[in-house]
Amino acid sequence: MPIILKTFMQSDIIQWRRHLHQNPELLYDVNETAGFIAEKLSAFGCDTVETGIGKSGVVGLIGGKLGGGPVIGLRADMDALPILESSGKAWTSKIAGRAHSCGHDGHMAMLLGSARYLSETRNFKGTVAVIFQPAEEGGAGALAMINDGLIDRFKIAQVYGMHNEPHIPIGQFAIRKGAILASADTFEITVKGRGSHAGQPHLSVDPVVAASHIVIALQSVVSRETDPLQAVVITVASIHGGDTHNVIPSTVRLAGTIRTLRPELRDFAERRLGDLVGSIAVAHGASADVSHSRGYPVTFNHDAQTDLAASVARSIVGAAAVNSDLEPRMAAEDFAFMLEARPGSIIIIGNGETAGLHNPAYDFNDDAIPYGIAYWVNLAETALAA
Q1: H or E element, residue 280
Q2: What is the pLDDT of residue 229?
């Protein structure tokens, strides 16, 4: 292992991680978390610590001692999830109904540890910007920080992210060039018919039947209208209609998500959603309103930066422990917005055999911390080498 894994004060970082885990905050309302981070960054001796970027984001700037050079951004997410934790750990969330069930507490702790080390050593040219972002879990905090001047204000030339993944062993990394995570859009459909007694269906325009045909037809978009080698997901995840067993309702509401790995498929799926829903509703004598909302874009790793990230990971754990051709995931990540603004990449770090992400029993594995810190520090020193 690199020297940093032996010398860094891992116990401090574990303590920070567990403190953050016990005090989770949601979306943009991460004021205590941001305050904790800003206080640490200032104590480490960061040259600049800026708060309130993108409502509640924090950025620390660390200048190298080897002369001028570019600025690279290293990003961690801060927000938790509205989940009741069941991990049973001694550091379980103190706030019922909120939990760091995606490991953002670990992401913050690893980046804080890296900021401390880089502030003490400064063995690089240029500047490292450590970015702590709110509202990854559905709030597009990355975009909010960009819109608030993150990229231009701090002159960030490249940007890098890291996310943990359960069931990848501790001490292993995974990455790929190109699309690594999917776009994530949402839709809501209201099918409008005419209600009646359930025993007199001929007097109704049954929105339940129309909605059922819509659900089946949307699956045919995936199975019969797109290349089977190209990933597309259309999931109807919610159906609500009626209140009892003997009344045909007047309306049925559907809601779901569309996931793709290519922008053109994203456009196609959105268009076909509107076409199919309207025509099927009319075919059943009903009508339908469709609301489609674009969420996070495809997370796309740039070639040169992904090569660099993979090389750094291999230097830490060896080639056999780095999968550089990871299968894409259909989860989404708002780091995608930063990768649209600047070249960069996101890497996956193993969390070991733990409960899955967004599971109430999940907890970030502290054994991953030294590997994450080693990656961040070696990445910064390599990308900003003299």
Answers
A1: helix 263-283
A2: 87
Half-sphere exposure of 314 (CA within 13 A, CB side): 11
Q: What is the pLDDT, as a whole number, of residue 1?
A: 46
Phi and psi at residue 12, in whole multiples of 5°? -60, -45
Q: CA 355, CA 361: separation in Å to the nearest integer?
A: 6
Q: What residues are paired with 347 via a beta bridge?
A: 162
Q: Strand pairing partners for 287?
A: 192
Radius of gyration of the chain (CA): 24
The helix (run of H) or strand (run of E) holding residue 127 is strand 127-133
**What's residue 10's pLDDT?**
82
List, edge to edge, every strand of the sheet that includes 48-53: 48-53, 57-63, 127-133, 71-77, 156-165, 344-350, 173-174, 322-323
| Residue-level pLDDT at 4 | 55
Write the DSSP string, 132-177.
Answer: EES-TTTS-HHHHHHHTTHHHHTTEEEEEEEEEETTSPTT-EE--S
Question: In the chain, where are the structural domains located?
Answer: 3-181+298-383, 183-296
Question: Sheet of 251-260: strands edge to edge?
Answer: 232-240, 251-260, 183-192, 287-296
Residue 8: the pLDDT is 53
Residue range 342-367, pLDDT digits in tens: 999 999 999 999 999 999 999 999 99
Residue pair 57/150 in contact (Cβ under 8 Å)? The answer is yes
CATH 2.60.40.1120 fits 183-296, yes or no: no
Which residues, given as ranges, of the chain have pLDDT below 70? 1-8, 386
238: helix, strand or coil: strand
What kind of architecture, by CATH, is found in domain 3-181+298-383?
A: 3-Layer(aba) Sandwich (3.40)
